[in-house]
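Follow-up to my post from last week.
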Amino acid sequence: MAGLELRGIRKDYGSTAVLKGIDLSIADGEFVVFVGPSGCGKSTLLRVIAGLETVTAGDISIDGAEVTRTAASDRGLAMVFQSYALYPHMTVHQNMSFALENMGIAKAEIAARVDRAARMLRLTDYLQRRPAALSGGQRQRVAIGRAIVRDPKIFLFDEPLSNLDAELRVATRKELAALHAEIGGTMIYVTHDQVEAMTLADRIVVLNGGRIEQIGTPLELYNRPANLFVAGFIGSPRMNLLPTELVRGEAAGPAATLGIRPEHVEPCQEADADLTVRIDLVEQLGGETFLYATGPNDIPLTIRCDGQSRLVRGDLLPVRLRRDHLHRFDAAGLACRSEPLPARSPS
Amino acid sequence: MTGKLRRLLLARRGGASWHWTDVASYAYLALGVLLMFGPVLWLALSSFKTPAALLEFPPSLLPMAQSEVSVPGYPQPLPLFQVTMEDGSVRELAQVRRVGIVAQMVDPAAPGQTIRVPADRRTPVRHMALAVENYTDPLTQFDFLRFLRNSLVVTVVATIITLIINSMAAYALSVYEFRGKSVAMLGVIGTLMIPITIILAPVYLVVTKLGFVDSLWAVILPGAATPTGVFLLRQYMLTIPRDLIEAARMDKASEWRIYARIVMPLSMPALAVLAIFSVMWRWNEFLWPLAVLTKTEVHTLPIALNAFQGELQTQWHYLLAMTVVTLLPVALVFAFLQRFITSGIANTGMK
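User reply:
Got it. Predicted complex:
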């Protein structure tokens, strides 16, 4: 198990810069998730760490040892691919033991390790099957098993759950979290799904356009997004963004945009209201309700209410924004950190 | 088994009765069978004909020979004819000799009396006769086994070398990114445009310089790297997902191991196709071996068969029989490997 250090990583494909200077350090045993929209460079970054792509500039070191020019096979990392990439002509057992054979480990030791991983992943009954005879979830577990038997310095996961159906994805997510708790390895996990990121990560790295937007624990990102991109990307449904002049008492000050999460918008008496919105859509989920509404100047606003709501499309609803949960962003889209949170209460 | 065969032979496009398209399909298929198997069948049947039967006109499909009978008083067996007598009766007579339009015949049952018959009143009595000596004679007199061994050595060794060299070239051209890769590929494909007749002389000079003339290596080595093979394998290897190769790299496999343990097994269908091609090419190769193999003891079968074709006369009966023998191994190889052509490796580990 090991830590990882990235310094000024750049990657260009011809004239296209995919990674524009990534500095990151990952501690031993940490579960770090790279998240971002498609094309943000998160998979490229993972492949750079794996050694499957060379860097244009920058250094990579694992456990203090410089590996920037080291071949993928010599870095001692294990990777779980999005397509699983199981060897179709080998049985599950052979798939899992292939790397160990390459490492020149004794037969008895290989058998013991494969056996242990198979028991951990409930694959013992399938060891003699070929990948084609397995279900999607089982293939996924074989791919993880192939990584576990290696006892690698770092586990790399490239969107491993994206080919599973929703139910299996939730189950496998829990298994992954349990696995990390059990074997405690350093894990780097790439996903575009922010729920996976929030639930699995010790720390999340939000990437956009080849740059790191913010690094932090899931709740730090949720509670204190560093900029508009992170504010919009983390959280579902998205944070509401409003121009400051629409909100009473906010027009003065450096902030240009206000952000407020759907659960912090409250229906209230007309006298206390910051805005009056018209309901466009009501999503009743039973335990909670999402109201999609339009405010003044056609600003869309999402409101989350506990329990069930009697409101219907077309209703007018006065709402209040909870001042202690208001996020303020300046004209450049950066969070205004000089203002202490919680902010002023309404007059 | 018979049920399967019945279904295969009586398959229709669906529905209970025969549609005209069924009839048309079967007619078309029958024509194809006739066109493709007709010559082979003709060859096989003709290989059992005696030299006389081969030259007969009109030719017969089946190997027939005229019946002969030993008649006391005549040293040689006499050919047997059916003769329509002047009174209209039909008798079976042996012919002693023929003079102009009159044949002197004799009744085998009563050899004492000669009967004169007009030549156009008799028809030969024929029976089916397999001239097995077409096969047995060359096997004893003609050193068939040596030529067979030479051909086998050339075919097997050359095919193995071809598969190894071509697959390695294809691996490099499909898996690696390097400067000049497409130029190299174009170069390989470009050599397809150069027929062997053009490079015959230069390659001959090279082979002579290397001292390979009159050794089987002279046939094996120059054709081992085939552009067709490289191209075929490269195209197939391009379809192997990159993830598998990268997964193997992450699994600490060396490039040789990736080639041997991952890419080669997954390329089996393409390798089988190339193996079939290579066997057919090498087994039937004629011009190049004819140029470099001058001593009889290193001749391959096609060259050896050429010996039956003299300047003045051709021993068609031996030539045909040995051609049939030559065809058999390729047909067998094809029968065993053809399932690889039709079925790829069905299972994949990808999503």
